[in-house]
Amino acid sequence: MSTSATKANLSLSERMADPKWWRQAAVYQIYPRSFYDENGDGLGDLKGITAKVPYLKELGVDAVWLSPFYPSALADGGYDVDDYRDVDPKLGTLADFDEMAAALHEAGIKIVVDIVPNHSSDRHEWFKEALASPKGSAARDRYIFRDGKGENGELPPSDWDSVFGGPIWERITEPDGTPGQWYMHIFAKEQPDFNWENPEIREDFLKTLRFWSDRGVDGFRIDVAHGMAKDLSEPMPMKDDLLARAHGTDGFIDGSHPFWDRDEVHEVYAEWRKLFNEYNPPRTAVAEAWVHESRRARYASPEGLGQAFNFDLLQSDFDAESFKQIITDNLVHAKESGASSTWVFSNHDVVRHATRYGLPKGGSVAQGTNAAQDVTGSKPKGQDGKGWLLAGAPQEELDVELGLRRARAASLLLLALPGSAYLYQGEELGLREVTEIPDSERQDPSFFRNKGVEIGRDGCRVPLPWTPEGPSFGFGAGKAHLPQPEWFKDYAVSIQEGVEGSTLELYRKALGLRRQLQTDEELEWVETGNPEVLHFSRPGGWETVTNFGTEAFELPAGTVVVSSGPLEDGKLPADTTAWVVRDA
Ligand code: GLC
Question: Where is this region: Disordered (predicted)?
């Protein structure tokens, strides 16, 4: 086995200084309000993250990505930002941030923060100023205001829907009390869209990126990176026209949609890239861009953000053929762009994969904004019968045990792939989606704006269980801000720690090995003679075999260094992955 390219050979300071650190990093997403609550107010906080640095270190991740922790009224879980250069007082202070950053860095863990450039919150001082200022003013020009249609401007400027349901335009009351202009919000009405043609917006985001980079932030996750640029020239197309011109739910492939994935957005990223490259090592960025795969490379290019999420595996069933195709295609795309690929099964927007894989095939497609962000700007994918299932299907269709077994197999496969692995807090515990949240306790705007038709994303945002007892299973001393189900206790960190075969120990082992075995960014498929079994090797590294079928499969010769479940007489059972190191 070649060890020349492994990260285990690097000292901690070499690893931290490596400009390529992100290319094969394991990045752990923290949803700060639900990670660990240090002060007992029911909401996770930055001090809570600092307290859990030893946990993250032991888990073996290279970086954490923090979902927004900025001041926010939480109209959209923090993606409605009041102030981009501060910490929400409910979560801590800038000093707490510095302390957390120092602790993470000392443990050899990089920090990626979320930047939300498409929209601010309606409590942002600029939006308040826009509302208080007259039509046509410079303050209004920072956002997207238009006169309404109809005799008295009583109709919205276009018939487009917002991602969370309901119209994309909201009418305001002018400072003199009369009904006034309309402003655009792709997401909730509390999230007014910025006008990216305004140089002041561009300047201000450069300032924000510098602010966090100077504070030691290593990289950025760019929220809705395919938004921002807009062409709202008249006549604005009707939503049915947009739907007709789209390539299914994959959106537009020619950049002609009025507000998704327009080419001009890359001018912004080219400017950001210059700023990122002023730092040593250069700051990294990953685009959250739900775009047609043929358009992803632009976001991921070295002149642009440098990396882009691919959500293809996340939207696939647990299926050998589809996994193989997705992996093959994405490695090609990544090479074309000069980036490394990204892999992800779960995040704060989608149904956890331990649930998706426990549902009947075809219904296991993720639901959340990805579904709702149907780039046609029309109805959410869920209404095509996919993301529905969780909301509409009887829960007895969920096979909990099967879901977890497959989730573990899938995760072990993902951790073997060349490129960056993005993990979401709680998946290392084998958590599944929490479906039993009463309507009265739901927080997600997609639940309310869709009038409960989609149950929204709260089920993957429930605070983590750290211990099997306590008022919030060790999350904090108070009641958690989203209710945790009784079954959470069986998944608590403390009861999985040190227990061979637990999901936590599986992740720890795999992440440790990944660091030791990691080789170049190559993958070779090995013919198995069985379409239900995938086998690939990392040249100079190790073999990964996943059995998507029903019959146990003979493993290649060598030492099994980790498997997602017990072997059956030395064979690989159904819904299981193993890593094999060939004997020298
Ligand atoms: C992204 C975030 C999601 C948020 C939306 C609007 O898709 O991941 O949580 O609701 O952007 O900011």
Answer: 362-383
CA distance 580 to 577: 10
Report the number of distinct structural domains present in the chain: 3
3-state SS assignment for residue 357: coil
Structure tokens that stand for 121 in this block: 């919150």
pTM of structure: 0.95
- Contact status, residue 247 vs residue 292, Cβ threshold 8 Å: yes
Q: Of the residues 231, 241, 267, 278, which is catalytic?
A: 278
Decide if 419 contacts 24 (C-beta within 8 A): yes
C-beta of 183 in contact with ligand 1 (< 6 A): no
User: Closest by alpha carbon to 515, among 63, 22, 6, 12?
Assistant: 6
Q: Which atom of ligand 1 is nearest to the CA of 187?
A: 6
CA distance to 44, 217, 248, 304, 547, per residue, from 66 (Å): 12, 11, 32, 21, 34
Domain that residue 576 falls in: 522-581
Residues 284 and 312 in one domain: yes
The residues that bridge with 424 in the sheet, in sequence order, are 29
Tell me if residue 278 is catalytic. yes
Q: How far is CA 178 from CA 132, 377, 561, in A?
A: 13, 30, 70
Q: What is the pLDDT of residue 170?
A: 98
258-294 pLDDT per residue, tens: 999 999 999 999 999 999 999 999 999 999 998 888 8
User: What tokens does 37 get?
Assistant: 């609550």
Q: Are residues 100 and 129 in the same domain?
A: no
Name the CA radius of gyration of the chain, rounded: 23
Do 398 and 488 have their domain in common?
A: yes
Query: E-assigned strands of 397-484?
Result: 420-424
Angle between helices 199-214 and 265-276 (to 10 degrees): 30
Residue 249: its pLDDT value, please?
Answer: 64
Per-residue DSSP letters for 260-314?
SS-TTHHHHHHHHHHHHTTSSSPPEEEE-----GGGHHHHHSTTTTEEE---TTT
Same domain, 34 and 150: no
Concatenated DSSP letters for 207-230? HHHHHHHHTT--EEEETTTT-S--
Check 190, 223, 312, 543 and give the catalytic one: 223
Active site residue 161: no
In whole angstroms, give the CA distance from residue 369 to residue 433: 15
Name residues whose C-beta falls within 8 Å of residue 218's C-beta, 6 or more positions apart in sequence: 21, 63, 110, 111, 112, 281, 283, 284
- The yes-or-no verdict on residue 367 having pLDDT over 80 is no
> Is the same domain home to 342 and 380?
yes
